[in-house]
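Here is my example:
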Amino acid sequence: MSLSQRLKLIASLVPKGARVCDIGTDHARLPIYLIEQQTADRVIATDIRPLPLENAKRNVALSGVAGIELRLCDGLSAVKKSETDTVIIAGMGGEVISGIISRAELLRERPYPLLILQPTTSPEALRKYLYESGFEILTETALKENGKLYSVMTACFTCEAKEMPEYFFFTGKLDPKTEDGYLYIKKQYIRLKKCADALCDIHEKQAEYLHYKKLSDQILKLLKDKQE
């Protein structure tokens, strides 16, 4: 089963012998690959929509692999704690991923499952949710593919909410010394600077202007410090 670079990066983060749950599996390409590569022992592949699950069922049958179970459900609602130790939620918006995590109590039960997350939009909202809800980002990697920049992160529940500086929610644990990490963080800087510039001459918006300026200045300093 061939995969995009984004999905290969996600697959590389799955521990050997893992019991994986792939949320929003779509065509089940990732579960098939994980079994073919003998990375995962078994995979539960879920989707909230019947049609993608039918496509997944056909692809699994064509692949001839064993060890993949398909389930129609919302997030982890039909998954038991004993069935998984690694949960993948990829290709969704940050708010959607946050909602799935918030409803999944099994993620807060020992031993805590490893989360592999890849938000397509609003990654800052996901990072903020994780830290405010007692999770911690363990690793984070940026990847540019087909002209788009992605962030893939691993996370785990820690029981303790942690206060982080606001700029962190835009940069995460990405390394600006890597080419794609630098491009990702620079994109966030440009985005926030544009917000500040648009407000700088509006008297009644000075508080917002200063807020965005502070964030963009902090991110610019991060980029400069890491280049030295």
User: Anything to note?
Assistant: The radius of gyration is 19 Å. Helices lie at 5-12, 29-36, 50-63, 94-102, 123-132, 168-171, 179-199, 206-227. DSSP finds eight helices and seven strands in the chain. The beta strands are 18-23, 40-47, 68-72, 86-92, 114-119, 135-145, 148-157.
